[in-house]
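Morning - iron/sulfur cluster inputs below, output right after.
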Amino acid sequence: MIKALGYFIEIIRGILITARHFVVNLFFHILKVLGIKTKRKGAVTIQYPEQKKEIVSRHRSLHRLMTRPDGKPRCVACMLCVTVCPSECIYVEAAEDPDPEIQKYPAKFIIDLGRCCFCGFCVEACPEDAIRMDTGNVHFAQYSQQDLIYDLDKLIG
Amino acid sequence: MIKIFIDKDPVEVEEGTTVLKAAERAGIHIPHLCYHPAFPPEGSCRMCLVEIEGFPKLELACSTVVKKDMKISTKSERVVEARKAVLEFLLAEHPLDCPICDKAGDCKLQDYYDEYGLFESQFKEVKEKREKKLKIGKTLILDQERCILCTRCVRFLREVTETQELGVFHRGVHSSVNIYDGATVVNNYAGNLAEICPVGAITDEDFRFKTRSWFLEKRESICPLCSRGCNILIEYHPGFARFEVPKKVYRIKARENPEVNGFWICDRGRYGYSYLEEGRADQIILNKIDGENVLTWENISEYLGEKIKRLYSAKKATGIALILHTWLSNEELFLVHKIFKEDLKVEKIFFADPPQIEADGYLLTSDPSPNIRGALEIGFDIKTVDLDALADGTDFLLAFGPFLSGLFSLGDLKEALDKIKGKVLFSYYSNELNSLFDIVIPVALIAEKAGSLTNVDGIVQSFQPALEPPGESLPEWKVLADLGKKLGIDSKFFEKFTSPDAILGEMGKKITFFQEKE
Amino acid sequence: MTETLTEILIVFIKIVCALVWFLLLTLYLTWLERKESALIQDRLGANRAPIFGIRIIGLFQPFADAIKMIFKEDFVPSFSRKFLHTLAPFISFFFVAITIAAIPFGDILRIGNRTINLQILDFNVGLLFILAMLSLGIYGIIISGWSSNNRYTLTGGLRGAAQVISYEVALGLSLIGLIMVYPSLRLSSIVVYQGELLFGFLPKWGIFLQPLGFVIFLFAALAETKRVPFDLPEGESEIIGFFTEYSGLKWGLFMMTDFMEIIIISTLLTTLFFGGWQVPWLASDGFHFPWGGELLLPHVVIVLFQVAAFNIKVFFFCWLQILIRWTYPRFRYDQVMDLGWKLLVPLSLVNIIGTGIIMTI
Ligand code: SF4
Ligand code: SF4
Ligand code: SF4
Ligand code: SF4
Ligand code: FES
């Protein structure tokens, strides 16, 4: 019974906390709407489309494929990213490069971003630093799934 | 038998074995690169060092012969240190191409580095540049930088094929494997080089860059391309459903079997795997059918049974003809023999096999089908198809295999088959031959079913399905066993045939040749 | 003849007004819920849905929601029982919507020599009618769970039924004390009784006469609305509820039913425990303060005062219910049952006996 009473007190305290937040926020927001400047402000979150949060350097955003100085992809089609990708969303087809120092290059490199979970494992696995997720681009939503399948051109460009 | 101690455990081994083999028998793996069980030890890689009590230095496990009461340790600190040092030397000039190296995943150097190496490189010097893409054979490419000079390839060409196309040139740090001026590796076993090279120095263009070895599923099977019946591993990629990339066989490798093929397979078997996938039939084709118009695997044997029963009661067996081939397993041939030869007394039984090829005097035989010996032992006499005899007075033809088209021109075949009223074909492929038959039923290849084959030397080898048969295809033995039941002449006999093993067991009882071989 | 026609017209106008009030309030409760939860959680809440670039703190959001809901695909799963599946949300909606008929919005409005009762239907069993209709609403839930032909929705529906039936008992019992105090089931009479004064200054509201009854009723009523912390039948976030197989407008009806239940519970709380349309010390001719002093007002102003008082009280309880919903986590199912049967039902029995004893003394 005593224990239940303890719960009851906490329940009341809980509702007082939420009510306080409500009233305080409402009060300061109303003051702001009325144009009265106060030191304390009502709590506000980031107003997304107008305001954007700065992307930190280690944020994982849209992938890109790095290129060699001559513009060829740096990727050697080792398929380690294909192997490590937990979403199985990368597909690579290798081809033979005439240059014996390069030998192997990706004839096809496809990432299905619709399935990608942005874990960054592909970046970790790549032995050539050929794939990075540092474009800072997080706004690539599309209306069709097909448009989320990125190929070599899109990933390099 | 003598007693030795490996890592303090007593082991009984035969006199004259090497430490490496003795350890292997005791279940202890001693890392080695140049040693290959097919050749005498070479002792060039130094990977197999072990410590033996009473010997001042570390010894090579691959070439040291055991002595009574020898105390060997394979895991002592000295050994581990030495292994690490050996690896460091081997890798000093190694390009570390793993991302673009086809061997990665199967590479022993990689594995050993992972297990015993894991050091930081101390070499600051630039690595030696060598030939990275040297074409040494029809499909073989040598990368001298990756070569660790184990000479397995050289020894293979010296001792197995005795053609000696490769050799080690120059000395010291400059030594490298190469071909002799103007020559390339041309023999029917060249493909084995890519397989026995412990690293990725020799790669095979047939496989090069197509996929990575760790994606491949490996399944055991038997090569059906000649009557040797070499044991093989079929390696296939299960496919990326997400990107609509289908299942595909990427390579065939040799599977060790000292009785049949040792460690090798010929290039015909290695590169000829397109027969597994190209042009396969995957649906029952109905060109002409009376009465029922739906035929499935469930009622096919019933349909055939009815047809044969009707003919048999009218004309006895003279109206029935049979074309067989020797890609059929022992079990299937046995069932055909029992149903048609013993029970129905059919006389017109012909064989249509692929035409003879040239044997190479080693593994490859001149019979391009795997089970001729089996057919003989079961009691068939192998008569090649004679179109006139075949068509004469025949009302119903049951044909197996796609090989008829290799023996006759389509026009001749059409002329002969047009005289026959009912024609049913069991085939692997969908090709123009199928249009000559009323019903074509797709069937499973040897790689896709279970059963057994008798090779040229009379060795009976069982096999299990390695791949999924395409589409509606199923093994022939199922229809035949079912047909035996449906015909009702000796139904009881066929009842227990629910698996190839059961059939083989029955064969052992009836045919002395198969007695102890099941 | 004209007399009956005007009567009918008046009833019709009353129905329209009440329904418009009800539905508009429902619509804006969704807005209130968003905004209130936002402020509680230090956010701003829905502030978009501009019309010609004018956003006014998201006031148009409910309309945007409604439009979206109407045009969303009305998906009926192929394995469901189609007719019942379609019927269920309407049953739920209907039985809640109809309860508004018995709610007194104000006292009597006199225009000329005609008196208009600000209540659609002045039943003598108004209270029972509302309780009965609220419990009938459970059929919508059971049928939706059953007809979806999905075992998750079925168990969701069963949980809903079990919960509503359990709390129905406490809800009914908690009101018996009240009926003993105000000897009537007619809601308008109950409100009129609450206009009297206790000890000469305290309005004779239910909350003062039946404090325990109020607490029990509040809990039971919260459980009846099936919202957090009693949202076991739906459990949108984790467990799967009875309307999982609904979408579009039909799902919207269930949602609206929820909000309408909040309003009905609020009006009941107001009417039964907080004097309904009564304003303290306001009689039919004006204010009579207990410390002496009077303020006489014209009839129309008094009626406006009463309707406003009713509305303010209802808003407050709506706000309170939303506050509760955004404060507490969900009960476990056995806790819900324990609370209902082991605490609220015995307490309400104690309340009845206590009330009886006090009344006889
Ligand atoms: S980020 Fe993760 S899921 Fe996405 S492509 Fe890379 S490995 Fe795959
Ligand atoms: S891991 Fe890097 S180099 Fe290898 S395939 Fe992926 S992107 Fe290319
Ligand atoms: S031979 Fe082995 S270690 Fe060398 S590059 Fe190839 S996989 Fe890597
Ligand atoms: S090419 Fe391969 S098999 Fe031949 S010596 Fe070099 S590492 Fe050994
Ligand atoms: S395996 Fe013994 S030296 Fe190479």
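Note: The CA atoms of residues 157 and 164 of chain B lie 5 Å apart.

O.
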